[in-house]
C-alpha cells in the first residue's frame, strides 16, 4: 500500500535556511578573533580586577620573556610575542605535533583606566602575570558621614 505525502514547497527552503544558519553560527562564531597564533587561537588568558588593580594572567608555553612585548594604548592591552621552534626538532619525523610555534598578538579592552607607569610584568613557568594599578580617579573613595545632633 502506498501513501501520499503532501508536497510543501517551502519545506525545502526551510531546510536551506537551517543549513545557512548552521554555517553562520559555526563559521562566524568568532569572526575576526583578536587572537592570532600562527593561524590558531592565541594563548589562554584570565583578566580580573580588584579595588586597586587589574590583573592579567596569560599562558605562554614555549615563549621566552625576552620574546614578549606588552603595550597599553587608549584602554586596550596588547600582548605580542613569538614561540620559537625547537632547534633539535630538525630532521625528525613527527607523528604528533600539537605545540604551537610562531608569532601571536592579542588585544583586550581593559575594564577601567590604569596607571601604565606603575605596571608590573612577571614571567614564571610559562605564565605571564601583568599587574596594572588602577588610575587614582577610578579607585573607590569612601566618604565619612557625620551625624548632626
Description:
There is one protein chain. This protein has 149 residues and is mainly beta. It has a single domain (34-138), classed as Sandwich (Immunoglobulin-like), CATH 2.60.40. Helices cover 13% and strands 36% of the residues. The protein has one helix and eight strands, in the order αββββββββ. It has one helix at residues 9-27, and strands spanning 35-37, 45-49, 53-59, 63-73, 76-83, 102-109, 120-124, 127-133. It has a four-stranded antiparallel β-sheet with strand order 1-6-5-4, with no helix packed on it. The chain is flat, with a radius of gyration of 25 Å. The N and C termini lie far apart (97 Å).
Features:
149 residues, mainly beta, Immunoglobulin-like, four-stranded antiparallel beta sheet, 1 helix
Distance N to C terminus: 97 Å
Radius of gyration: 25 Å
The low-pLDDT segments are: 29-39
CATH class, named Mainly Beta
Any guess at the CATH architecture? Sandwich
Amino acid at each position: 500500500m502506498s501513501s501520499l505525502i503532501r508536497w510543501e514547497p517551502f519545506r525545502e527552503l526551510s531546510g536551506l535556511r537551517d543549513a545557512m544558519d548552521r554555517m553562520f553560527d559555526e563559521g562566524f562564531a568568532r569572526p575576526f578573533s583578536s587572537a592570532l597564533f600562527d593561524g590558531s587561537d592565541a594563548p589562554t588568558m584570565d583578566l580580573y580586577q580588584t579595588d586597586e588593580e587589574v590583573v592579567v594572567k596569560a599562558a605562554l608555553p614555549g615563549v621566552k620573556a625576552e620574546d614578549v612585548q606588552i603595550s597599553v594604548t587608549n584602554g586596550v592591552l596588547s600582548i605580542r610575542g613569538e614561540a620559537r621552534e625547537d632547534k633539535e626538532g630538525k630532521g625528525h619525523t613527527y607523528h604528533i605535533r600539537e605545540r604551537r610555534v610562531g608569532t601571536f598578538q592579542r588585544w583586550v579592552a581593559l575594564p577601567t583606566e590604569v596607571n601604565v607607569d606603575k605596571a608590573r610584568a612577571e614571567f614564571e613557568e610559562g605564565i605571564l602575570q601583568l599587574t596594572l594599578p588602577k588610575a587614582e580617579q577610578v579607585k573607590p573613595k569612601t566618604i565619612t558621614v557625620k551625624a548632626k545632633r
